[in-house]
């Protein structure tokens, strides 16, 4: 009887209905947490709690398979590999941006002048309002949402037709699978998929550990991951996303959104849960565009991802419509580039340099190439294993990278592009071969490590398990002696002003200085005997040498150049033992008591002090008058700020960053470079930038100079 049937199915139905409500609640919770974690970088619950709720959702969905929907957070990975990528015709073409090749500020002026001319603005008309953004170095993506659900993700392709990569994009946690209910029925979000540099390094590290091919750069790795056929592979590649615009959107007449400005549109995207770069800002007229270009140039190397320039867009959407397009580029936007950080050139030879620790570094001699704003003729190859792994040979076409002050490096090889038919291009960059090793059947290296030091002729050895070859000559090797002297004189070590590379070369090559204490014995006559040395410079250097004698134990220890003993370890040692003699007499076990000193460091210190000639050097330096205040050992944990992590940002009135750091460290605090959940205080001075923003975002206590002094227990 129908009535009875109804009675029977009623409880089952309500069970399903209840599950549906529960599932919805769990999904909302997970989506919110995932957004906080992946987009805002501000997790709200421990990972374990997230996992617990996630598993609860999985269990419920397993019980009610009919309730599983593609936009459920459990469905990010899954689905079978595709046989091939399907072409997608874009509803609104994905345009490119005109590139202003003039990397000087004039580039921004030229764009502003063009916009003003096209708009018919008089010279005395008010400045045009723009939005300035970063030009991310990844690949463009179109995300199509229908009724708030992600239905398709497509690459740009040729602008008209791209490829369907939804299966891979779904695996990206930063990309919402479902949007809040206030979105228009059709919404296409456009932006850039990229890989952060640290994620790229970690990926390569993992590849290396597994003995697999390494990738050349974040951009091509991201492009390769997005175009994978198997979403399981893409899911393992840490991809990220920044939104910067719209594609097709339900028109205003049909109830779609009505924005006045591009900036409003970006704010709305942020509201809907898309990552929008924090640097994005409104800018008035050419002068503010120029200021933005300069500010980002200075920040570029500190950004966690690669950019190749900035983008300026006319802010008013009405003005954008008025300006329109020219061929395939909008007249209302321009890309203002920075010098490229990666270029292709040829390796003409490989030289071997000997460093302070005796490490032999193979250095590629390159056909000169303009990278990262300078002409580069040498690039490090790190060690023999890196050469082998990258399959580098003398004569190869290679990709050279130079970012910021970083030493240029050879990142990988390219076959001659002209005769390689398999090369494909993604946004104008060849990917097939860049993505991993060149497809060589057999790699026959044409470089060998020398068996004897190219500088002093001593034997070259490689310790088991070590990647590096070393010269065994020690301070007998002039190369090591020079580096040891430069390290000793460095600002953070003995701080001997004026003792630079040229002078050290002269002193060592002229056999004036053999060991560190010789520095304090040169005297005026010895100095004046050097070529190109004037009376004034000689006097200055002697004064600097004299001044350096009064130092600290930590600086002295660091200056000795003991392997693995960096500035921080030297400070820890000095603090822990209080006096040099206590360190000289310490056993390995006692050394291990020092915070952050592990077996490798303890062994290195022990080995150093076990060499009679090293002890001799230490004694002679003391005999020459090098001295420092000594005191009783200080227990780290008894210091007032022990266990506290502090980050400094911006400029403080009347206090240098170095001094602030020294004061904090003396009080036991750790001074870190970046703000995280673990930071206890951020000390913000004038012009504090992203670190301050991050602190506020994470709710970390922010101090000014007065606050800092109070923390240190002193009056400002
Ligand atoms: S807007 C109509 N904004 O640059 C303008 N593009 O040639 C459409 N890109 O491959 C693009 N950062 O993926 C825009 N902040 C940004 C961008 C950006 C990087 C890339 C884009 C495309 C190329 C445009």
Topology:
Layout: H1 2-39, H2 47-63, E1 87-89, E2 98-100, H3 106-118, E3 129-136, E4 139-146, E5 149-155, E6 161-163, H4 166-169, E7 186-194, H5 197-209, H6 218-226, H7 231-236, E8 240-249, H8 262-271, E9 281-284, H9 285-299, E10 307-314, H10 317-323, E11 325-326, E12 329-330, E13 333-337, E14 342-354, E15 359-371, E16 374-380, H11 384-390, E17 397-401, E18 409-414, E19 425-426, E20 429-430, E21 460-461, E22 469-471, H12 478-489, H13 501-509, H14 523-528, H15 535-548, H16 553-559, H17 567-577, H18 580-584, H19 588-592, H20 599-610, H21 612-623, E23 645-649, H22 657-666, E24 670-672, E25 681-684, H23 690-698, E26 701-703, H24 705-711
Helix pairs in contact: 1-2, 3-9, 12-13, 16-17
2-(butylsulfanyl)adenosine (IVH) binds next to strand 3 and strand 8.
CATH architectural name of the largest domain: 2-Layer Sandwich
β-strand number: 26
* Tally of individual domains: 6
Distance between the terminal alpha carbons, to the nearest Å?
88 Å
Task: Specify the biggest β-sheet.
Answer: 7 strands, antiparallel
Give the uncertain stretches in residue-range form: 1-10, 416-440
Based on helices, strands and strand pairing, what is the structural class? alpha+beta
Shape: globular
Oligomer: single chain
CATH class of the largest domain: Alpha Beta
Annotated CATH homologous superfamily of the largest domain: DNA ligase/mRNA capping enzyme
Task: Catalogue the ligands.
Answer: 2-(butylsulfanyl)adenosine
Rg is 31 Å
Relative helix content: 25-40%
CATH topology of the largest domain: D-amino Acid Aminotransferase, Chain A, domain 1
**Fraction in beta strands:** 15-25%
What average pLDDT do the residues reach? 87
Q: Count of helical segments?
A: 24
């Amino acid at each position: 009887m129908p009535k009875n049937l109804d009675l029977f199915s009623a409880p089952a139905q309500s069970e399903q209905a209840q599950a549906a409500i529960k599932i919805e609640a769990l999904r909302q919770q997970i989506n919110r947490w995932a957004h906080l974690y992946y987009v805002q970088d501000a997790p709200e619950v421990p990972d374990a709690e997230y996992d617990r709720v996630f598993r609860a959702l999985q269990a419920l969905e397993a019980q009610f398979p009919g309730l599983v929907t593609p936009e459920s957070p459990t469905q990010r990975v899954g689905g079978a590999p595709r046989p091939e990528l399907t072409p997608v015709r874009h509803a609104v073409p994905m345009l490119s941006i005109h590139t202003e090749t003039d990397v000087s500020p004039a580039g921004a002026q030229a764009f502003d002048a063009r916009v003003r001319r096209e708009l018919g603005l008089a010279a005395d008309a008010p400045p045009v309002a723009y939005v300035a953004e970063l030009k991310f170095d990844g690949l463009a993506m179109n995300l199509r949402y229908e009724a708030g659900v992600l239905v398709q993700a497509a690459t740009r392709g040729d602008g008209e037709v791209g490829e369907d990569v939804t299966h891979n994009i779904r695996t990206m946690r930063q990309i919402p699978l479902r949007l809040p209910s206030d979105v228009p029925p059709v919404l296409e979000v456009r932006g850039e998929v990229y890989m952060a540099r640290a994620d790229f390094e970690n990926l390569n590290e993992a590849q290396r550990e597994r003995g697999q091919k390494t990738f050349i750069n974040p951009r091509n790795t991201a492009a390769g991951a997005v175009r994978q056929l198997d979403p399981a592979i893409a899911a393992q590649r840490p991809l990220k996303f920044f939104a910067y615009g719209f594609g097709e959107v339900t028109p205003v007449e049909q109830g779609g959104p009505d924005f006045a400005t591009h900036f409003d549109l970006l704010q709305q995207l942020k509201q809907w849960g898309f990552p929008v770069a924090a640097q994005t800002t409104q800018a008035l007229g050419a002068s503010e565009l120029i200021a933005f270009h300069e500010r980002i140039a200075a920040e570029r190397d500190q950004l966690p991802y690669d950019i190749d320039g900035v983008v300026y867009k006319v802010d008013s959407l009405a003005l954008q419509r008025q300006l329109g397009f020219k061929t395939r580029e909008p007249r209302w936007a321009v890309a203002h580039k920075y010098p490229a950080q990666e270029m292709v050139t040829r390796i003409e030879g490989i030289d071997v340099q000997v460093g302070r620790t005796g490490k032999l570094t193979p250095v590629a001699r390159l056909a000169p190439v303009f990278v990262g704003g300078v002409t580069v003729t040498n690039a490090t190859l790190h060690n023999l294993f890196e050469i082998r792994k990258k399959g580098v040979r003398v004569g190869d076409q290679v990709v050279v990278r130079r970012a910021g002050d970083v030493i240029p490096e050879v990142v990988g090889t390219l076959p001659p592009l002209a005769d390689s038919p398999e090369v494909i291009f993604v946004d104008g960059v060849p990917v097939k071969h860049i993505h991993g090793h060149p497809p060589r059947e057999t790699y026959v290296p044409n470089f060998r490590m020398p068996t004897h030091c190219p500088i002093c002729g001593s034997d070259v050895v490689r310790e088991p398990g070590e990647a590096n070859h070393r010269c065994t000559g020690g301070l007998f090797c002039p190369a090591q002696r020079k580096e040891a002297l430069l390290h000793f004189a460095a600002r953070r070590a003995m701080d001997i002003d004026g003792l630079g590379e040229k002078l050290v070369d002269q002193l060592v090559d002229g056999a004036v200085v053999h060991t560190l204490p010789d520095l304090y014995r040169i005297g005026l006559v010895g100095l004046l005997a050097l070529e190109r040395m004037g009376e004034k410079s000689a006097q200055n250097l002697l004064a600097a040498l004299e001044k350096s004698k009064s130092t600290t134990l930590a600086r002295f220890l660091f200056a000795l150049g003991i392997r693995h003993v960096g500035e921080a370890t030297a400070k820890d040692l000095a603090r822990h033992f209080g006096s040099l003699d206590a360190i000289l007499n310490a056993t390995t076990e006692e050394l291990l008591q020092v915070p952050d000193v592990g077996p490798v460091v303890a062994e290195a210190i022990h080995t150093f002090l076990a060499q009679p000639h090293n002890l001799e050097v230490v004694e002679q330096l003391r005999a020459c008058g090098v001295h420092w205040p000594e005191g009783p050992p200080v227990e780290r944990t008894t210091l007032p700020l022990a266990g506290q992590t502090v980050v400094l940002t911006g400029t403080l009135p009347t206090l240098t960053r170095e001094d602030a750091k020294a004061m904090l460290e003396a009080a036991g605090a750790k001074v870190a470079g970046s703000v995280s959940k673990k930071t206890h205080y951020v000390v913000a001075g004038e012009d504090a930038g992203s670190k301050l923003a991050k602190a506020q975002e994470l709710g970390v206590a922010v101090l000014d100079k007065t606050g800092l002094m109070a923390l240190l227990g002193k009056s400002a």
